[in-house]
Amino acid sequence: MRTLPPVEDLGEGVWSVPVPIPGNPLGFTLIYALHTPRGPVLVDAGWNHEDSWQALASGLEIAGTRVSDVHGVVLTHFHPDHSGLAGRVRETSGAWIAMHRADADLVRGFARIGADEQHDRQLRRTAGAGASAAELERLARTAPRFEPPALPDHDLSDGEPIGIGSSTLRAVWTPGHTPGHICLDLDDGARLFTGDHVLPGITPHIALYDHGDGDPLGAYLSSLDRLADTPADTGILPSHEHRFTGAARRAADIASHHEAKLAELAGLLDGDGASLWELSAQLPWKRGWDAMEVTSRRMAAAETAAHARTLERRGQAVCSADGEGVLRWRTAGADALRR
């Protein structure tokens, strides 16, 4: 577990408030409080847990304000370590909640189908990835059911300004980690809140969980290009780890990492085809495939799926379901010969 850093005054009315993620190796989410004449506006809100709530409340008090004073919450994306407490903040203060419209649509969809149906869909998709019956049984027993986050009051568009007193936040749409992930540009480049888009030492989870959901890795690589002109000295305020500079260099490094993984995956494809489970078992992972529990294997397979989809869009791979409904990926050249 990572050590929780201190609450920090970053100057010019911006505070960093670390909020723990109990039981998660990420350790914490960095929530940013921006003081405005109408009360603080938060960038993200943190995990929905009592320990997290207490950390947020005490952190805001150190910053000279209270949860009940919060004027608004801008979510970089819908994931629970960012959005989980947004609803409770709104109940306490009457604050508005804003997120990009693409994530807002997902959240409304989650609310319509409910946690149980979302769980059942997760099992069906994992079966289609090639998990064994025993693994599916374990996933059915152990996978957490996440309630959808609070519905937003405002749907943001790319480039939309968010007034915060004499300063302005501008939404910068950076899809990939989620369809509606945004960075937030403060005062035309003074600072950039990057959420999970670029982090100083780790790469965000880029995954394809549903076979019909576009090309998240391709979108992510394009989103990284949006940081290419960021001045080297621009202060980058991410949601995890620590602040840094050199966003363009870091974005280029992350893109190179994914290109190397794409090449590695392409080298595993053949004419017979393989499931996402089989392909993922051959790829290197920090913990190692054999050491992973089924929930971690599901996430790894979803990352493999995102890379396979990008290879498909580049004309290097094809995918079709076998007789049991398992998706099998093979090299595009071999598929042409088979036809």
The helix content, as a percent range, equals 25-40%
Q: SSE string, helix = H, strand = E? A: EEEEHEHHEHHEEEEEHEHHHEEH
- Spatial shape: globular
Strand order of the largest sheet: 1-2-3-4-5-6-7
**Which strand-content bin applies to the residues?**
15-25%
Q: What is the CA-atom radius of gyration, in angstroms?
A: 21 Å
Structural class assignment: alpha/beta
Structure overview:
Helices cover 38% and strands 20% of the residues. The C terminus is likely disordered. The strands form three sheets. Strands 1-2-3-4-5-6-7 form a seven-stranded mixed sheet. Strands 8-9-10-11-12 form a five-stranded mixed sheet, with no helix packed on it. Strands 13-14 form a two-stranded antiparallel ribbon. The protein has 339 residues and is α/β, with parallel strands linked by helices. It has two domains: 205 residues, Ribonuclease Z/Hydroxyacylglutathione hydrolase-like (Metallo-beta-lactamase, Chain A), CATH 3.60.15.10; 73 residues, no CATH class. Keywords: Hydrolase. It comes from Streptomonospora salina. This is Glyoxylase-like metal-dependent hydrolase (Beta-lactamase superfamily II). InterPro entries: Metallo-B-lactamas, NDM-1-like, RibonucZ/Hydroxyglut_hydro, WH-like_DNA-bd_sf. GO terms for molecular function: hydrolase activity.
